[in-house]
Specification:
Blueprint lengths: L4 E9 L2 E9 L6 E7 L2 E5 L4 H12 L7 E5 L5 H7 L6 E6 L2 H8 L6 H5 L4 E5 L2 H6 L13 E6 L19 H8 L2 E11 L5 H10 L2 E11 L4 E11 L6
Parallel strand pairs: 5-6, 5-8, 6-7, 8-9
Antiparallel strand pairs: 1-2, 2-3, 3-4, 9-11, 10-11
Helix pairs in contact: 1-2, 6-7
Length: 242
Amino acid sequence: MGLRFEELDWRPTPIGDISLRRRRHPESGEDVYEVKLGEEFLMSSLFTAGEIALAELALARLPDAEPDVVVGGLGLGYTARAALDDPRVRSLTVIDTLAEVIDWHRRGLVPLGNRLTSDTRCRLVHGDFFAMAADPRGLDPDEPGRRFHAILLDVDHSPRHVLHPRHAALYQPAGLRALAAHLHPGGLFALWSNDPPDDQFTSALSEVFAEVAAQVVEFDNPLQDRTASNTVYLAGKASVTP
């Protein structure tokens, strides 16, 4: 039997100390992977329904036969894996500001690491998604100005609860407008949030995108013996009329 608790990695970063932990679930006996930033829990492999729904709901709305997709925020890789599970996806660019998180996947320290790094469609990019989204050169450091069919973002807890103050600008109309410039006409921006639907943010999306929806994703929380929920925002860019 393996250890009941193990810290797989710990490193200081510019935004705080980050750690990867693995523990044995007392009831199922399965390994649970957790990421902490300082004393704050960022993610857990126990709760992945929202991250998976982020990719599935977004890609289901795309008519393109071979979409090029960006994921902002690698985390434990569940959004990226869900995108790669769609056989239509031609390319996936995953951007994370922490080289340490990318390294976990390349070293196989997390369960989905080998799945992501072995798929030739998937590229892991070390970069600041928020700075890149605001930059006209865009989200592909090797091809400035490249546009995508979908941009999926899962970094902050919500538009109101950000991990760093500089992230807040993206959730305003000007920031969303800069991000939308990196989408093809008819492309889609999708955002994961841990909070209930936010009318103020939905209004900001509506200033930039032609179609906006906020979908609640419910899932079981066995730690609290209740149903929990996340929100996935879906914002479609207008198509160009011939």
